[in-house]
Write a structure and sequence with these properties.
Pdz3 Domain, alpha+beta, 7-stranded mixed sheet, 5-stranded antiparallel sheet, Nucleotidyltransferase, domain 5
Length: 684
């Protein structure tokens, strides 16, 4: 194959500081000045990729590639099989809408005439503002779901609890040596006076939520408080993100706003209204809008095609080195262009056989080429060879598997020697030949059937010639050739001075992750959790009991109450109340919402070894006294029906947490050998 050309366009002054047609030095805040740099690269084949895949365009920028801290702007299209093909690059000194506009204007003329309809990017407006000036046909701007979820989750988990709705933490310091700590806002009098270990002297006062505690202790107790609200709203936003029905989406959106107002999450409400809940912003991240764009299932929800290319470039090609020169980066991009060219050529030649009809519908291919039916084998559209050129045809005779590998190996070696003597091979290919030749010699030398005697020869060529002549002189008997590897020059290994580690080793958490939302991938589970949120919103009286409930797994354990820092843990489990819980059928109210969830499960604890994770909800508790006669208390159902405000129907989180803590504190104070039978439920 001949040398393939690539178009390189420069946008900079002839000398640093000089102006040209593209620069503007009238203002210090100009979008493109004379000291800026922009280099655009695109090959004719990459232009053909854009012409054949015009509907969807993915764009992103990355940094940390050159010593000048220049950015790499990438444009990518998606083919009919869902593969990403990078179709243009630009090396820029910075990123704004002017750079993206010059980037698009510098491409091949036939590329600027295509009809781009969908632009996938991260949550920045620079690419959209610049590319819409070149391609007026862009109608839809879609945000990457991965970036949206990352930003929202970070904002929700960092939110603080409202001032009027609080879950307080008290520490009880008994006069005895063994200190017992309980997470309680208050203790019922019956439990307090019956537990001498929990009595506090009249001279001592119990401080609740004061500023006299250290910063570390305050952070330890405030994590669960924030998660009671932040995690719940993060899960509710994830439900909004995945909803594909427009009417149901806006029903959930009203509940989402009402819950933010009723629980007085003012800062979080302002954040959502500013960035995500505006009418034009909803269409950029909502799944229902992506389904209605072209009336088909939309599979491209993230910008991972471009992110994966940047990860391959930084990690596997450049090995995370930041000091590459511009010329070196251009050579790397040139090699990467060949990789994407062959990836695209495989589809053109029909090597890639199967294609998902949903990707075809996204591209607008509603008929032919496997749309609407099972993908079949396509014919290879290859032009016939010119006249006079020999045509290779596969043999029809069945070739039996050869067992005389020794003769075939010698024949291959003879062919290799004849080719090396007649062709002028470039050094890079010779290095590859020597590498495989060295491995083959070591394999034969270390073989258990190889001859024990080894001859020292100057080169493999002379050794093969002597072996072939010995074989010709022998009368019907083939001698076993002995291959000796080429000895490399023994060079002294370079020693490097030890370097201190740049990053400290990350300390392993003592508890498992409590913010996982794997169970929300099931649509039935999302509907169940959204209905639980609707109980606290306007119009909760109109909610009817669901006809069906999602499948759940029940886990019953016998655990003991232990002290974990300033909190009580049940076999290594720490519970906390949440706004949205699990709805289960109930005989009295029709449905019951379980709003006490597993906050943390400490590693190597009893509950962790038995499979308890942060996806479980607390259903029932029953205290069992271990002694001569086992005494069983009544079963306590931990639901939120009895802890809701009669007017607003909001959950009184403080009373709900107090109910659980009262049972645990009474167990550890009055019954030293008592165990608790706990029933946990989780979504399937």
């Amino acid at each position: 194959m001949g040398v393939r050309s690539i178009c390189v366009t420069y946008h900079t002054a002839l000398q640093l500081g000089e102006e040209n047609d593209d620069t503007d030095d009238t203002n210090l805040k100009s979008d493109f000045r004379s000291d800026d740099f922009l280099l655009v690269m695109q090959s004719p084949d990459q232009a053909s990729m854009m012409v054949e895949n015009p509907r969807i365009l993915c764009c992103d920028a990355t940094h940390g590639l050159t010593a000048y801290d220049y950015k790499l702007l990438s444009m990518l299209v998606v083919d009919r099989h869902g593969h990403g093909l990078v179709c243009a690059w630009a090396i820029a000194s910075r990123e704004n809408h002017r750079f993206w506009q010059l980037f698009a204007e510098s491409l091949f003329p036939r590329v600027k005439c295509i009809l781009v309809q969908v632009l996938m990017t991260d949550d920045t407006n620079s690419a959209y503002n610049g590319l819409t000036r070149v391609w007026k046909s862009i109608e839809h701007k879609l945000l990457c779901h991965w970036h949206v979820k990352k930003n929202v989750r970070q904002q929700c988990m960092a939110c603080t609890k409202p001032k009027k709705v609080s879950v307080s933490y008290c520490s009880f310091v008994p006069p005895c040596e063994c200190h017992v700590y309980a997470r309680l806002s208050h203790i019922h009098d019956s439990v307090y006076y019956s537990c001498p270990k929990l009595k506090v002297s009249r001279g001592k006062k119990v401080k609740v939520g004061t500023t006299t505690r250290t910063k570390a202790k305050r952070k330890q107790s405030s994590d669960v408080e924030a998660n009671s609200f932040g995690l719940s709203f993060w899960e509710f936003f994830y439900i909004l993100l995945k909803e594909t029905n427009k009417d149901v989406f806006y029903t959930y959106l009203r509940s989402f706003r009402d819950n933010l107002k009723r629980y007085k999450m003012t800062s979080l409400l302002e954040y959502f209204e500013k960035f995500y809940l505006a009418p034009h912003r909803i269409k950029q991240w909502a799944s229902w809008y992506r389904v209605q764009m072209f009336d088909c299932d939309w599979l491209l929800d993230t910008n991972m095609h471009v992110e994966a290319w940047h990860n391959v470039l930084k990690t596997h090609i450049m090995e995370r080195k930041r000091n590459a020169r511009i010329v070196t980066l251009m050579a790397i991009l040139r090699q990467a262009e060949i990789m994407f060219f062959w990836k695209w050529a495989r589809v053109k030649l029909g090597i890639r056989q199967h294609s998902d009809k949903r990707w075809l519908a996204m591209r607008g291919e509603k008929s032919g080429a496997g749309a609407g039916r099972t993908p079949t084998r396509r014919s290879c559209a290859v032009s016939p060879p010119p006249e006079g050129e020999p045509v290779w045809e596969p043999s029809t005779e069945h070739e039996s598997r050869s067992t005389n590998y020794k003769e075939r190996t010698m024949a291959y070696l003879e062919d290799c020697m004849s080719l090396l003597s007649t062709k002028n091979v470039e050094p890079e290919r010779l290095k590859v030949v020597m590498k495989h030749q060295h491995a083959m010699c070591n394999l034969l030398r270390n073989s258990p059937d190889a001859s024990a005697t080894q001859h020292n020869t100057t080169s493999i060529r002379s050794h093969v010639e002597t072996t072939v002549s010995t074989t010709d002189k022998s009368s019907g008997m083939d001698t076993i050739p002995t291959f000796v590897p080429v000895r490399k020059k023994q060079t002294r290994k370079k020693t490097m001075s030890p370097v201190a580690p740049k990053y400290k080793r990350k300390k392993k958490n003592t508890y498992v992750n409590g913010t996982s939302i794997k169970f929300l991938k099931n649509p039935e589970n999302r509907t169940n959790l959204a209905t639980s949120f609707g109980l606290s919103a306007v119009g909760h009286n109109t909610l009817k009991t669901p006809q069906t409930f999602p499948d759940t797994d029940e886990l019953k354990l016998m655990l003991q109450v232990k002290k974990a820092g300033r909190k009580l843990s049940l076999g290594g489990i720490v519970f906390y109340p949440v706004l949205g819980g699990m709805l289960i059928p109930d005989d009295e109210h029709g449905m019951e919402s379980l709003n006490m969830r597993v906050a943390r499960v400490y590693r190597e604890s009893t509950a962790y070894c038995k499979g308890v994770t942060s996806q479980y909800y607390l259903h029932k508790l029953r205290v069992i006294s271990v002694g001569t006669r086992n005494k069983r208390d009544t079963t306590h159902v931990i639901g939120s029906a009895h802890y809701r405000n009669h007017y607003t129907n909001t959950i009184q989180l403080e009373k709900l947490a107090t109910r659980v803590d009262t049972i645990l504190a009474g167990c550890i104070a009055t019954r030293a050998k008592a165990q608790i039978e706990v029933t946990l439920l989780t979504y399937v």
